[in-house]
Amino acid sequence: xxxxxxxHALTDVPLHYCPGCTHGIVHRLVAEVIDELGIxxxxxxxAPVGCSVMAYNYFNCDMIEAAHxxxxxxxxxxxxxxxxxxxxxxxxxxxxASIGMAETVHSAARNxxxxxxxxxxxIYGMTGGQMAPTSLPGQITQTSPYGRDTxxxxxxxxxxxxxxxxDGAQYLExxxxxxxxxxxxxxxxxxxxxxxxxxxxxxxxxxxxxxxPTNWGLTxxxxxxxxxxxxxxxxxxxxxxxxxxEKEAE
Amino acid sequence: xxxxxxxxxxCKGCGLCVDVCPKKVLTLATDKINAKGHHPVQAVNxxxxxxxxxxxxMCPDCIITVER
Lengths: 250, 68
Prior knowledge:
The complex is a heterodimer. Chain A is built from ten helices and eight strands. Chain A is of the alpha/beta class. Chain A has a single domain (about 25-125, about 160-250), classed as Thiamin diphosphate (ThDP)-binding fold, Pyr/PP domains (Rossmann fold), CATH 3.40.50.970. In chain A, strands 3-2-4-5-7-6-8 form a seven-stranded mixed β-sheet, with helices on both faces. In chain A, helix 1 (about 25-35) crosses helix 7 (about 180-200). The termini of chain A are far apart. Chain B is an alpha+beta fold. Chain B has a single domain, classed as 2-Layer Sandwich (Alpha-Beta Plaits), CATH 3.30.70. Chain B contains two helices and four strands; from the N terminus they run βαββαβ. Chain B has helices at about 15-20, 55-60; strands spanning about 5, 25-30, 40-45, 65. The longest helix of chain B has 5 residues, at about 15-20. The interface between A and B is medium-sized, with 30 and 26 residues.
């Protein structure tokens, strides 16, 4: 009996991510959910710019590469033109929380029926570890070698908390993938986000606290600990908004 | 009887599976180098494996298949 194998929605292409990068875990969770819901044939994914820029190689469904930060805008167009398709975007923090902030907030405000998977690893990974909008106060990066100075650089953006104030957003949850329990919870959240779209319940965003061992300068194991020690206290896990239960009651 | 299959060529030797294994079944093969230039994972005492699939759950590269 097979207990665990690679989901069909993930291709055989070797991932280009650094050793220990949790992008691979999130890719697999998305693929498992696509498999379980049986929607591989009608799913369209939108790849971002960032470390996951080549996500179109890794998913077996149709994929579109968006301009930097514009994945929710592309997803809006795809979903409105083909409402029967399931449309998801897969974006990092430099893509979604920095250059793509307008598209993110407005797609939430319009309550587009799309699913957004948002990877928050508190750093710009692909470009070599510069300070991101989500970098923690005091965090050392290439462009903040003495630690992020909040007097000069401001404070990190908490995307789930911010979007919970937007009336259009329907389901917002923050999860992590730094241990087995959190991975299981992350899968449940991602599955709910896709299920919401299948049932036409509207805008769902799952923020996944991820790691960047290379640019944090830690081993993969220490990076997982760093998530527990530093990231989760600043970005508490949990459901930030859930209007989908009310919709069922109506 | 549990069985683990590794796609060794795709292993990046990050060791997340080694750390998460509750029965200490896995180690990195420090005497081997795979096509990517990493020390790949190997199972050293398969008799202890309980097929919990924790290793596969944490593997970022999806190289582990768990059977029971």
